[in-house]
Design goal:
- By secondary structure, the protein is α+β, with helices and mostly antiparallel strands.
- It has four domains: about 40 residues, no CATH class; about 110 residues, Immunoglobulin-like (Sandwich); about 35 residues, no CATH class; about 120 residues.
- The chain is about 25% helix and about 30% strand.
- The protein has seven helices and 17 strands.
- The chain has a five-stranded mixed sheet with strand order 2-8-7-4-5. Strands 15-14-13-16-17 form a five-stranded mixed sheet, covered by helices on one side.
- Helix 1 packs antiparallel against helix 2.
- It is elongated, with a radius of gyration of 34 Å.
- The protein starts with 12 loop residues before the first helix and ends in a 27-residue tail after the last strand.
- The N terminus and C terminus are likely disordered.
Protein backbone atom coordinates (compact mmCIF):
# COMPACT_ATOMS: atom_id res chain seq x y z
CA UNK A 1 0.00 0.00 0.00
CA UNK A 2 1.43 3.43 -0.92
CA UNK A 3 0.59 6.90 0.32
CA UNK A 4 0.57 10.24 -1.49
CA UNK A 5 1.13 13.65 0.11
CA UNK A 6 1.30 17.10 -1.50
CA UNK A 7 2.27 20.44 0.04
CA UNK A 8 -0.45 22.51 -1.68
CA UNK A 9 -3.98 21.31 -2.31
CA UNK A 10 -5.97 22.25 -5.44
CA UNK A 11 -8.35 25.13 -4.85
CA UNK A 12 -12.06 24.60 -5.56
CA UNK A 13 -14.09 26.92 -7.85
CA UNK A 14 -15.59 28.47 -4.72
CA UNK A 15 -12.11 29.17 -3.44
CA UNK A 16 -11.05 30.86 -6.68
CA UNK A 17 -14.19 32.99 -6.57
CA UNK A 18 -13.33 34.10 -3.03
CA UNK A 19 -9.77 34.96 -4.14
CA UNK A 20 -11.03 37.00 -7.10
CA UNK A 21 -13.50 38.97 -4.96
CA UNK A 22 -10.86 39.55 -2.29
CA UNK A 23 -8.42 40.79 -4.95
CA UNK A 24 -10.97 43.24 -6.36
CA UNK A 25 -11.85 44.56 -2.91
CA UNK A 26 -8.18 44.86 -1.99
CA UNK A 27 -7.46 46.87 -5.15
CA UNK A 28 -10.37 49.21 -4.45
CA UNK A 29 -9.26 49.57 -0.81
CA UNK A 30 -5.72 50.53 -1.81
CA UNK A 31 -6.90 53.14 -4.33
CA UNK A 32 -9.44 54.56 -1.88
CA UNK A 33 -7.13 54.34 1.16
CA UNK A 34 -9.92 52.45 2.96
CA UNK A 35 -8.47 50.15 5.66
CA UNK A 36 -11.87 48.72 6.55
CA UNK A 37 -12.46 47.54 2.98
CA UNK A 38 -8.98 46.01 2.97
CA UNK A 39 -9.85 44.17 6.18
CA UNK A 40 -12.98 42.76 4.50
CA UNK A 41 -10.88 41.59 1.55
CA UNK A 42 -8.47 39.79 3.89
CA UNK A 43 -11.35 38.18 5.77
CA UNK A 44 -12.79 36.97 2.45
CA UNK A 45 -9.49 35.35 1.42
CA UNK A 46 -8.63 33.87 4.82
CA UNK A 47 -10.80 30.70 4.46
CA UNK A 48 -8.85 29.79 1.31
CA UNK A 49 -5.59 30.11 3.19
CA UNK A 50 -6.88 28.26 6.25
CA UNK A 51 -8.14 25.43 4.03
CA UNK A 52 -4.51 24.72 3.09
CA UNK A 53 -3.48 24.32 6.74
CA UNK A 54 -6.58 22.84 8.42
CA UNK A 55 -6.42 19.63 6.41
CA UNK A 56 -8.37 16.50 7.34
CA UNK A 57 -5.99 13.73 8.28
CA UNK A 58 -6.67 11.41 5.34
CA UNK A 59 -3.49 9.51 6.15
CA UNK A 60 -5.30 8.03 9.14
CA UNK A 61 -7.93 6.45 6.88
CA UNK A 62 -7.53 2.74 6.14
CA UNK A 63 -9.56 1.04 3.43
CA UNK A 64 -10.03 -2.71 2.95
CA UNK A 65 -11.56 -4.37 -0.08
CA UNK A 66 -12.93 -7.91 -0.28
CA UNK A 67 -13.95 -9.64 -3.49
CA UNK A 68 -13.93 -13.10 -5.06
CA UNK A 69 -10.54 -13.66 -6.70
CA UNK A 70 -12.12 -14.87 -9.92
CA UNK A 71 -15.06 -13.24 -11.74
CA UNK A 72 -16.71 -13.67 -15.13
CA UNK A 73 -17.10 -10.73 -17.51
CA UNK A 74 -20.72 -9.63 -17.65
CA UNK A 75 -21.59 -11.17 -14.29
CA UNK A 76 -22.06 -9.39 -10.99
CA UNK A 77 -20.30 -10.35 -7.78
CA UNK A 78 -20.76 -9.22 -4.20
CA UNK A 79 -17.91 -7.07 -2.91
CA UNK A 80 -17.24 -5.30 0.38
CA UNK A 81 -15.46 -1.97 0.92
CA UNK A 82 -14.65 -0.89 4.48
CA UNK A 83 -13.43 2.62 5.40
CA UNK A 84 -12.00 3.08 8.91
CA UNK A 85 -10.72 6.11 10.83
CA UNK A 86 -7.59 5.00 12.68
CA UNK A 87 -6.61 8.51 13.76
CA UNK A 88 -7.21 10.25 17.11
CA UNK A 89 -9.48 12.94 15.59
CA UNK A 90 -12.86 12.78 13.92
CA UNK A 91 -13.00 12.88 10.14
CA UNK A 92 -15.44 14.92 8.04
CA UNK A 93 -17.50 13.29 5.30
CA UNK A 94 -15.45 12.19 2.30
CA UNK A 95 -15.82 10.53 -1.07
CA UNK A 96 -14.29 7.18 -2.02
CA UNK A 97 -13.62 6.08 -5.60
CA UNK A 98 -12.44 2.54 -6.30
CA UNK A 99 -10.71 1.75 -9.61
CA UNK A 100 -9.74 -1.75 -10.68
CA UNK A 101 -8.94 -2.99 -14.21
CA UNK A 102 -11.74 -5.16 -15.53
CA UNK A 103 -14.36 -3.80 -13.11
CA UNK A 104 -16.72 -0.88 -13.44
CA UNK A 105 -15.57 2.14 -11.32
CA UNK A 106 -17.63 2.65 -8.19
CA UNK A 107 -17.91 5.64 -5.82
CA UNK A 108 -19.30 6.09 -2.30
CA UNK A 109 -20.02 8.99 0.03
CA UNK A 110 -18.68 8.22 3.50
CA UNK A 111 -20.35 10.03 6.46
CA UNK A 112 -18.23 11.74 9.14
CA UNK A 113 -16.33 9.16 11.17
CA UNK A 114 -15.32 9.46 14.81
CA UNK A 115 -11.99 8.06 15.92
CA UNK A 116 -11.97 4.26 15.68
CA UNK A 117 -15.25 4.10 13.74
CA UNK A 118 -15.75 2.56 10.31
CA UNK A 119 -18.26 2.47 7.47
CA UNK A 120 -18.86 -0.74 5.51
CA UNK A 121 -20.40 -0.89 2.04
CA UNK A 122 -21.69 -4.17 0.59
CA UNK A 123 -22.57 -3.96 -3.09
CA UNK A 124 -22.97 -5.95 -6.30
CA UNK A 125 -20.48 -4.98 -8.98
CA UNK A 126 -20.26 -5.96 -12.63
CA UNK A 127 -17.11 -7.24 -14.28
CA UNK A 128 -16.93 -5.44 -17.62
CA UNK A 129 -13.74 -6.72 -19.25
CA UNK A 130 -11.69 -9.91 -19.09
CA UNK A 131 -8.13 -9.64 -17.84
CA UNK A 132 -5.84 -10.01 -14.86
CA UNK A 133 -5.24 -7.15 -12.45
CA UNK A 134 -2.34 -7.29 -10.00
CA UNK A 135 -3.35 -4.11 -8.19
CA UNK A 136 -6.14 -1.61 -7.75
CA UNK A 137 -6.45 2.00 -6.63
CA UNK A 138 -8.60 3.70 -4.00
CA UNK A 139 -9.01 7.48 -4.12
CA UNK A 140 -10.14 9.48 -1.10
CA UNK A 141 -11.34 13.07 -1.43
CA UNK A 142 -12.96 15.85 0.60
CA UNK A 143 -13.32 19.66 0.50
CA UNK A 144 -13.69 20.06 4.27
CA UNK A 145 -13.54 22.18 6.35
CA UNK A 146 -14.48 25.25 4.27
CA UNK A 147 -15.03 23.81 0.78
CA UNK A 148 -12.16 25.94 -0.54
CA UNK A 149 -9.61 23.20 -1.38
CA UNK A 150 -9.56 19.60 -2.59
CA UNK A 151 -7.89 17.24 -0.14
CA UNK A 152 -7.12 13.88 -1.76
CA UNK A 153 -5.19 10.72 -1.14
CA UNK A 154 -4.49 7.72 -3.35
CA UNK A 155 -4.06 4.24 -1.94
CA UNK A 156 -2.59 1.59 -4.23
CA UNK A 157 -3.15 -1.98 -3.15
CA UNK A 158 -1.41 -5.06 -4.56
CA UNK A 159 -3.92 -7.86 -5.00
CA UNK A 160 -4.62 -10.24 -7.88
CA UNK A 161 -8.05 -10.24 -9.47
CA UNK A 162 -8.88 -12.33 -12.56
CA UNK A 163 -11.85 -11.67 -14.83
CA UNK A 164 -12.71 -14.65 -17.05
CA UNK A 165 -14.16 -14.31 -20.57
CA UNK A 166 -17.90 -13.77 -20.74
CA UNK A 167 -20.01 -16.92 -20.89
CA UNK A 168 -21.08 -18.15 -24.33
CA UNK A 169 -22.47 -21.50 -25.55
CA UNK A 170 -19.61 -23.95 -26.04
CA UNK A 171 -18.88 -25.73 -29.31
CA UNK A 172 -18.71 -29.52 -28.99
CA UNK A 173 -15.22 -30.70 -29.89
CA UNK A 174 -14.46 -34.23 -31.14
CA UNK A 175 -14.95 -36.98 -28.56
CA UNK A 176 -12.16 -37.79 -26.18
CA UNK A 177 -12.25 -41.48 -27.12
CA UNK A 178 -11.48 -42.96 -30.53
CA UNK A 179 -11.07 -46.45 -31.91
CA UNK A 180 -7.49 -47.79 -32.19
CA UNK A 181 -7.70 -47.52 -35.98
CA UNK A 182 -8.61 -43.81 -35.82
CA UNK A 183 -6.10 -42.93 -33.09
CA UNK A 184 -3.11 -44.71 -34.59
CA UNK A 185 -1.63 -46.28 -31.48
CA UNK A 186 -2.63 -43.97 -28.66
CA UNK A 187 -2.77 -45.27 -25.07
CA UNK A 188 -5.64 -47.72 -24.49
CA UNK A 189 -8.27 -47.15 -21.82
CA UNK A 190 -11.17 -49.19 -20.48
CA UNK A 191 -13.44 -50.61 -23.19
CA UNK A 192 -16.23 -48.35 -24.29
CA UNK A 193 -19.97 -48.84 -24.23
CA UNK A 194 -20.47 -49.74 -27.90
CA UNK A 195 -20.73 -53.51 -28.67
CA UNK A 196 -17.87 -54.90 -30.76
CA UNK A 197 -18.21 -58.72 -30.86
CA UNK A 198 -19.66 -61.80 -29.14
CA UNK A 199 -17.71 -64.68 -27.58
CA UNK A 200 -18.12 -67.44 -25.02
CA UNK A 201 -17.91 -66.58 -21.36
CA UNK A 202 -14.47 -66.82 -19.75
CA UNK A 203 -13.43 -66.87 -16.13
CA UNK A 204 -13.28 -63.29 -14.86
CA UNK A 205 -15.89 -61.87 -17.26
CA UNK A 206 -18.50 -59.57 -15.75
CA UNK A 207 -21.96 -61.13 -15.73
CA UNK A 208 -23.34 -57.73 -16.71
CA UNK A 209 -21.83 -58.28 -20.16
CA UNK A 210 -23.75 -61.51 -20.78
CA UNK A 211 -25.96 -61.34 -23.88
CA UNK A 212 -28.93 -63.43 -22.80
CA UNK A 213 -30.58 -63.49 -26.22
CA UNK A 214 -27.48 -64.90 -27.87
CA UNK A 215 -27.07 -67.35 -24.99
CA UNK A 216 -30.65 -68.60 -25.39
CA UNK A 217 -30.02 -69.38 -29.05
CA UNK A 218 -27.04 -71.62 -28.26
CA UNK A 219 -27.52 -75.43 -28.41
CA UNK A 220 -26.13 -75.64 -24.88
CA UNK A 221 -27.69 -72.84 -22.78
CA UNK A 222 -25.06 -73.31 -20.08
CA UNK A 223 -22.50 -71.79 -22.45
CA UNK A 224 -22.90 -68.09 -21.74
CA UNK A 225 -22.26 -65.57 -24.47
CA UNK A 226 -20.81 -62.21 -23.50
CA UNK A 227 -20.58 -58.93 -25.40
CA UNK A 228 -17.09 -57.62 -26.08
CA UNK A 229 -17.25 -53.80 -26.01
CA UNK A 230 -15.58 -51.73 -28.69
CA UNK A 231 -11.98 -51.00 -27.60
CA UNK A 232 -11.20 -47.31 -27.25
CA UNK A 233 -8.10 -45.22 -26.73
CA UNK A 234 -7.60 -42.10 -24.64
CA UNK A 235 -7.17 -38.90 -26.63
CA UNK A 236 -6.00 -35.40 -25.82
CA UNK A 237 -7.04 -32.04 -27.19
CA UNK A 238 -4.60 -29.40 -28.39
CA UNK A 239 -6.32 -26.05 -28.90
CA UNK A 240 -4.23 -23.52 -30.82
CA UNK A 241 -5.43 -19.91 -30.68
CA UNK A 242 -4.35 -17.65 -33.54
CA UNK A 243 -5.48 -14.24 -34.68
CA UNK A 244 -4.86 -10.72 -33.48
CA UNK A 245 -6.36 -8.46 -30.85
CA UNK A 246 -7.12 -5.83 -33.47
CA UNK A 247 -9.49 -8.21 -35.26
CA UNK A 248 -13.08 -7.08 -34.82
CA UNK A 249 -14.25 -10.47 -33.54
CA UNK A 250 -11.17 -11.31 -31.44
CA UNK A 251 -13.00 -11.12 -28.12
CA UNK A 252 -15.83 -13.28 -29.49
CA UNK A 253 -13.24 -15.89 -30.48
CA UNK A 254 -11.60 -15.85 -27.04
CA UNK A 255 -14.97 -16.42 -25.36
CA UNK A 256 -15.88 -19.26 -27.72
CA UNK A 257 -12.50 -20.98 -27.40
CA UNK A 258 -12.36 -20.62 -23.61
CA UNK A 259 -15.72 -22.14 -22.81
CA UNK A 260 -15.36 -24.81 -25.50
CA UNK A 261 -12.02 -25.83 -23.96
CA UNK A 262 -13.71 -26.08 -20.55
CA UNK A 263 -16.41 -28.32 -21.98
CA UNK A 264 -13.77 -30.51 -23.65
CA UNK A 265 -11.80 -30.89 -20.40
CA UNK A 266 -14.39 -33.38 -19.16
CA UNK A 267 -14.17 -35.63 -22.23
CA UNK A 268 -10.43 -35.65 -22.99
CA UNK A 269 -7.42 -36.96 -21.09
CA UNK A 270 -5.98 -33.47 -21.02
CA UNK A 271 -6.21 -30.14 -22.83
CA UNK A 272 -3.18 -28.26 -24.16
CA UNK A 273 -3.54 -24.55 -24.90
CA UNK A 274 -1.16 -22.85 -27.32
CA UNK A 275 -0.87 -19.34 -28.76
CA UNK A 276 2.05 -17.52 -30.43
CA UNK A 277 4.35 -15.95 -27.88
CA UNK A 278 2.41 -17.37 -24.92
CA UNK A 279 3.62 -20.15 -22.59
CA UNK A 280 1.76 -23.38 -23.28
CA UNK A 281 -0.54 -24.84 -20.64
CA UNK A 282 -1.69 -28.44 -20.18
CA UNK A 283 -4.29 -29.80 -17.76
CA UNK A 284 -8.00 -30.29 -17.17
CA UNK A 285 -8.76 -27.72 -14.47
CA UNK A 286 -11.51 -25.47 -15.86
CA UNK A 287 -10.61 -22.50 -13.67
CA UNK A 288 -7.00 -22.61 -14.86
CA UNK A 289 -8.20 -22.85 -18.46
CA UNK A 290 -10.24 -19.69 -17.98
CA UNK A 291 -7.28 -18.04 -16.22
CA UNK A 292 -5.12 -18.71 -19.29
CA UNK A 293 -7.68 -17.17 -21.62
CA UNK A 294 -8.20 -14.19 -19.29
CA UNK A 295 -4.69 -12.91 -20.01
CA UNK A 296 -4.55 -13.74 -23.72
CA UNK A 297 -3.73 -10.52 -25.54
CA UNK A 298 -3.56 -11.52 -29.19
CA UNK A 299 -1.16 -12.92 -31.77
CA UNK A 300 2.43 -12.66 -30.65
CA UNK A 301 1.59 -11.22 -27.22
CA UNK A 302 2.28 -13.00 -23.99
CA UNK A 303 -0.03 -12.54 -21.00
CA UNK A 304 2.57 -10.31 -19.37
CA UNK A 305 2.85 -8.27 -22.58
CA UNK A 306 6.62 -8.91 -22.76
CA UNK A 307 6.41 -10.42 -26.23
CA UNK A 308 5.59 -8.69 -29.48
CA UNK A 309 4.54 -9.90 -32.94
CA UNK A 310 8.03 -9.12 -34.25
CA UNK A 311 9.52 -11.39 -31.60
CA UNK A 312 7.50 -14.48 -32.57
CA UNK A 313 9.18 -17.06 -34.78
CA UNK A 314 6.16 -18.27 -36.74
CA UNK A 315 7.96 -21.20 -38.35
CA UNK A 316 9.16 -22.34 -34.93
CA UNK A 317 5.63 -22.07 -33.58
CA UNK A 318 4.27 -24.19 -36.44
CA UNK A 319 7.01 -26.73 -35.75
CA UNK A 320 6.10 -26.77 -32.05
CA UNK A 321 2.47 -27.51 -32.92
CA UNK A 322 3.46 -30.38 -35.21
CA UNK A 323 5.86 -31.74 -32.58
CA UNK A 324 3.15 -31.83 -29.94
CA UNK A 325 0.79 -33.58 -32.37
CA UNK A 326 0.78 -37.33 -32.35
CA UNK A 327 -1.35 -40.45 -31.91
CA UNK A 328 -4.49 -39.67 -29.98
CA UNK A 329 -4.05 -35.89 -30.16
CA UNK A 330 -6.90 -33.89 -31.68
CA UNK A 331 -5.64 -30.53 -32.96
CA UNK A 332 -8.20 -27.73 -33.16
CA UNK A 333 -7.39 -24.19 -34.24
CA UNK A 334 -9.36 -21.22 -32.93
CA UNK A 335 -8.94 -18.40 -35.41
CA UNK A 336 -10.63 -15.27 -36.69
CA UNK A 337 -9.55 -16.07 -40.27
CA UNK A 338 -12.08 -17.64 -40.83
CA UNK A 339 -13.86 -17.26 -37.53
CA UNK A 340 -14.45 -20.33 -35.41
CA UNK A 341 -12.92 -23.59 -34.21
CA UNK A 342 -11.48 -25.75 -37.01
CA UNK A 343 -10.03 -29.24 -36.66
CA UNK A 344 -6.57 -29.39 -38.25
CA UNK A 345 -5.85 -32.47 -40.41
CA UNK A 346 -2.82 -34.56 -39.52
CA UNK A 347 0.24 -32.75 -40.85
CA UNK A 348 -1.83 -29.72 -41.90
CA UNK A 349 -0.84 -26.10 -41.36
CA UNK A 350 -2.69 -23.64 -39.19
CA UNK A 351 -5.00 -21.25 -40.98
CA UNK A 352 -4.48 -18.13 -38.89
CA UNK A 353 -0.67 -18.30 -38.73
CA UNK A 354 1.79 -19.86 -41.13
CA UNK A 355 5.33 -19.29 -42.31
CA UNK A 356 3.89 -16.95 -44.97
CA UNK A 357 2.65 -14.67 -42.17
CA UNK A 358 6.22 -13.43 -41.75
CA UNK A 359 6.11 -11.71 -45.16
CA UNK A 360 2.49 -10.64 -44.76
CA UNK A 361 1.05 -12.94 -47.47
CA UNK A 362 -1.92 -15.23 -47.01
CA UNK A 363 -1.56 -18.95 -46.41
CA UNK A 364 -2.27 -20.79 -49.68
CA UNK A 365 -2.06 -24.23 -48.02
CA UNK A 366 -5.13 -23.93 -45.85
CA UNK A 367 -7.32 -27.04 -45.99
CA UNK A 368 -10.90 -27.72 -45.09
CA UNK A 369 -11.49 -29.05 -41.58
CA UNK A 370 -11.26 -32.81 -41.29
Amino acid sequence: MSREFRLLRPITPGGWLAIMLASVLAAIAVRAFNPWLLLVACALASPVLLAQFLRPDLRSVSVSFRSPRRLVAGDQAEQVLTVRNDGPRSLPGLGVLHLCPGLAPIAFSVPPLASGCQAEFVFDRRAVRRGRAVGHEIRLGTTAPFGMAHHTRRIRVQAELVVHPARVPAVEIASGHLTPEDAGGARAVQPGSEPHALREWRHGDDLRHVNWRATARRPLPEQLIVVVPEPEVETSLMLVVTGAAEDEDWEDLVRLAAWSACAAAGTHADVTLLAPGVPAWTGTDELEILDWFSTLTGEGSAPDETASPDGVDVAEFQHDVRTRSGPGVIVVEATTRPFGLHQVPAGGLLRGISTDAVTGTTDPTGEDPA
